[in-house]
Design brief:
Layout lengths: L15 H24 L6 H26 L5 H24 L7 H24 L8 H24 L5 H33 L1
Helix pairs in contact: 1-2, 1-3, 2-3, 2-5, 3-4, 3-5, 4-6, 5-6
Amino acid sequence: MNPGRIPRLPAHPLALPNILTYARIAAVPVVVGLLFWQSIFAGELWLRWVALAVFIAAAVTDFFDGYLARAWGQQSSLGRMLDPIADKLLVAACLLILAAGTTIRGWALLAAVIILCREVLVSGLREYLAELRVGVPVTTLAKWKTLGQLVAIGFLIAGEAGEKVLPYTIEIGITLLWLAALLTLYTGWDYLRAGLRHMIDE
């Protein structure tokens, strides 16, 4: 046995990569609750820093769950199903609560709507193609899209609290949100084109 080789561990529901994905899902109501308390109930600004810390921890698990699953040979159907769901829950919930608290407002709401509509579209396409036993691999650009969304949302979660440390924090977040929305449109068209090709072939 090669001592430098990482052993392949059996994939099961309580494997570490899956636990990290569960943690990302569990972080969603925590972040939403903190932002709701601060924005809707006019809580203290330090709540935004706590929400940001939980959000960053959740976002980091998005890298490590996939990396560890590949490195340890613990890739599973459960992990492949839950990973994109966890991402979408985190992004969608944060966008909605940020819009409710008016951190995202005006024309910036359109960027949030674009992102949310794309996620619904891709989820529907994946379900349709799964019935045809057609896999839709996640592209590198789609991964950058997710990263862009998470960074933008991070700035927006900091919001007013962040403005006291870094001026124009909200404006930076809105700009990044628009860039993420443009990437979202492009990658969404890629998925739609793949889906249409299979529909036509059928």
